[in-house]
Design goal:
Strand order of the largest sheet: 1-2
Number of helices: 34
Oligomer: single chain
Helix content: 55-70%
Shape: globular
Radius of gyration: 27 Å
Amino acid sequence: MPPASTAASKGSTNPQQANTGAITSSARATKKSAFSCEPCRRRKVKCGGEQPICSRCLARNDACVYKLNPTLSYTQRLEERIKELEDQLATARSPSAARSHDGCSSERPGLSSSEGAHRNQESSEGLAGTFKGLKLDERGVLTYHGATSFFNLPSDYTGSEGDVPVSPHSEHPLNGRRERLVNNAWQQRALENLSEIPEPFQYLINTHWCWIQPLFNFIYRPAFTRDMQLLGPYYSHTLLNAILSHSVRWGRWDNSTRERLEQEYDGGAVFGRHARTMVFDEVSRGVATIPTVQTLLLLSAQDCSQGNTSQAWMYSGMAFRMIDHLGICVDSQRYTGDIPFSDEDVEIRRRLFWSCYFWDKIISLYLGRSPSLQHSPVSPPQMILDDSNENETWAPFGLKYPDGVKYPPIAAHSTSCFMLMCQLSVIFNQILIHMYDPLQQNSEAEIQECLTRQEAALKKWWEDLPSFLKIEASVLPPLSPPSHVVTLNCLYHTFNILLHRPMLSRERSSAETNRARHLLECVSSATSIIAIFDLFCRSFGIYRSVLSLSYSVYIASSIFLLQLQAAAGISGILTEEEQQQQQPAIRKLDFCIRALSRLKDINPIVGSAVSLILRELANLGIRTLGLGAGIDFSRQGPSNSTYQAHQHTASSSSASKGRRNSILGVGQRLSHYEIMMGNTDSFVSTSDSSNSGSLYSQQTLFQCPERGQGDKIDHHLQHHGISNQVFQAVSSVQPISASFGDVTNQEQQDALR
């Protein structure tokens, strides 16, 4: 049995014992007044919170009912429904308004799937003639087939009452479904504490729940942890091995976990070998299950970061084909066919579809490919009923701060973060298709139309982003929010750059004021990215970042490089005087290169990005300390001493005291740039011009230009080192590639050492 399988068997508890402790565990987990049952609320007495019936209701023989507040997704759907009804009313009153409304609705790219389903109700009902819902094949596998397939006769598609899909509003979303899902999630979380999963498996699994799951949402935790004990349908040894393999790079920073991995599991490589062997066996046997899809997504993500782009692209493609085969791309609530889906089944299928949709856009972005998945009127809506982890406390698992310092309690907001990331990916899908299609040349009219629509959609998304998820680079908090919130904000700025960057090289296609606005948007977002990334590194360390943050830093560096290329003019080489004039851009690009050089230790694919930038800088004649000099680019694999230096503090009293103040937000903070420069024993004095380190002060390096109009735009550009001459030259420079590219075999081998 593979090691991960052994872990599962060792970690499984007796189901009877687990059930015995379930009530007690649930009581401990729900002893909050907010979770009191309705009879106890009415009597204003303390409720024990026992599940499924509290002790007071049991003694009084009352019906014990727990009622919950509406979910964020349900509230959003109500708002969308109200707006839809208001639009329909306006349409009925004015024919001209109807025509105007039709035009506007077709131009809004950022609609959620639920709103899209409302807008396309009529068209979706028209699909009934060709789509008959989901069914089980002869082997008992859930799937679907259209009218042209081997598996249906023309007579099966004659119109009948049974052809009409179930209305998305036929069942009230809060008609007991959310209560059942949330109560089950709470119970499973309580049972997790009773399980006895041995190390290092427990450490690696917890790592996944903390650093990966909140943003990507590949796995539904309550079902996985339950079926891990019972060997149910939402667990497999293959999936467990994939989770362990993907989490190994985070686990290496814990000494005891690293020792176990090195001594017993070949540094963790054994998990990846088992996962690949087992998933290939499943595919060869025609096994198509949800755990198989989740395994393929994790393998795709891991291989992508390691630079194995061929494997990453094929794994993701298999996952997307498999959700098609399983009918996950179809709303399981509306097109159930003869399948009796449970509340949990529908929840898992919805989450998995949008996880795949998001990953499709991200991997297409990394590799410069066309996205595969598109949402339609029959797709699952962007709706999550189980938001039990929304207000769950998030803590940076595995991170050890200096004595006396703790990460403050903070709500995870995982559900809202994932849903807003899905909305953002819908917008970016349009940018990929209409501005970065590698298979055909996007026309100028198409690009301009995309710019107009998606710029408005991005602006609205940012304005509507809740304050608890928004990071303003101009007023950064003293300590970084959770990792997934940081990634959400950085990806927004990345998408904003990719929307405006193509317009910089279109000299005649737009007015000069518009091009200045596009440049300002790019510079503002690029500076915001490195400021937020610096905050993340100072709080959690550079090696705990996901690949999406590395990509964001790379895209930010492309803007600073573009400034230098424009400043070089026709000669193509920057003189010493010009380099002095371009110090703001040089310092920011310096920061990006140093960060990327470190990040390629954990994400070898980043090495190709570093090589691209350094090649362009060599062409510009820039060879200064920080831009390649003094950095050992051949070193692969992070060392523990380097990580400790990145992470937080030396043990000396003065430095330790200063770094505590940095984490707590008291006094002057040490920039991560200074840590990478090796300045870990003393602070940089921003007022002392004689100190060479003052050039890299946080106030200067991460100052974000304000967005303005007209003459104000030119003023802000000049304030940040972008002269009119540089601005005029930007249109003649082509930005570096938006994709990472491939990693050489040597880099892959070095990364595995």
